[in-house]
């Protein structure tokens, strides 16, 4: 196995298999795992969550007052500035736990799937701040315990990205079948709100929605309307019985960090984005992703990785912006020359992370050509959903 393949494999391991982490703030683990809010009467432990294949090195949670939350609550600042501080407070170093469970079957005879649990340690960096636009890049930086209790790592790789735009009047909506469409929003509807646009590890668009930050005492939260999304990789790698995730996203800033809640419906649509028949929904799902602040965590490798690869990823983002501008209705293929997009981009960025020099002209030409290879001409079928 080459060193350059390791980040890709680590990423796939995290999002498809799931992991289990032990931390320095825990006492000795109980003799039996207790899976709260699962399906209590399922037989033979069939609803035990997927995951648990790796163990993280011990970490220490930061119990000091959250400076981000303190900044949000400062008296006398404008609503706009309060919103900005809420978004910026999500930057930092975190232990993240991902939890998903199907709660309500919606088709006769449908058997709910096993819950999903996973973990990560993640560095979130502000890579752009223009006042009314803020971009947060997530970078996985993970240490593992081997069978003898020795610490291995860190494994570092680029993760997802979230862009926030104030009073955004153009939203990129997912329409099913690997297709996104730019939709104009009236200025009156966008007033006072922020859009959150989420992108995959290869900066492929995922979903975007317009919502408002709300403050009620110590409750600080942003909520989206119902938004369509492609399948997440935790599902894409193991399921093909639905093709759209329709849900509401909520982000809440907490004393310990922040939380991302999801209220999802798993649904089936045809190639034109129309709901399938009278029973398009398989099940309802809830998701809870907790970002807990860490102290004394060595994130040096993540910062070095980004310093070496940032110019390349900036060119990737620019190439996607150009592609989206040139294709108001953007349809993507799952593969190009039998490879996934992240394979091309990670291979290139990992050479830079290992100390290679970046040739900006060559890099721009490379990413533009590769990304254009995934764009499907109007009227052609893209195949299976990308994510």
Order of strands across the biggest sheet?
A: 4-5-6-7-10-11-12-14-15-16
Query: How much β-strand is present in the residues?
Result: 35-45%
Using only C-alpha atoms, the radius of gyration works out to 21 Å
- Could you give the count of β-strands? 17
- The overall pLDDT, averaged over residues, is 89
Characterise the protein shown here.
Strands 4-5-6-7-10-11-12-14-15-16 form a 10-stranded antiparallel β-barrel. The chain is an alpha+beta fold. It has one domain. It is globular and about 55 Å long. It is built from 8 helices and 17 strands. Residues 1-5, 15-32 and 381-387 have low confidence and may be disordered. It is 24% helix and 37% strand.
Keywords:
10-stranded antiparallel β-barrel; 3-stranded antiparallel β-sheet; 387 residues; disordered C terminus; alpha+beta
Structure at a glance:
The chain is α+β, with helices and mostly antiparallel strands and 387 residues long. It has helices spanning 6-17, 67-72, 79-88, 187-190, 233-236, 300-326, 341-353, 360-374, and strands spanning 20-21, 55-56, 60-61, 92-105, 116-129, 133-145, 151-166, 170-176, 179-184, 194-199, 205-216, 219-223, 227-229, 244-254, 257-267, 281-295, 329-331.
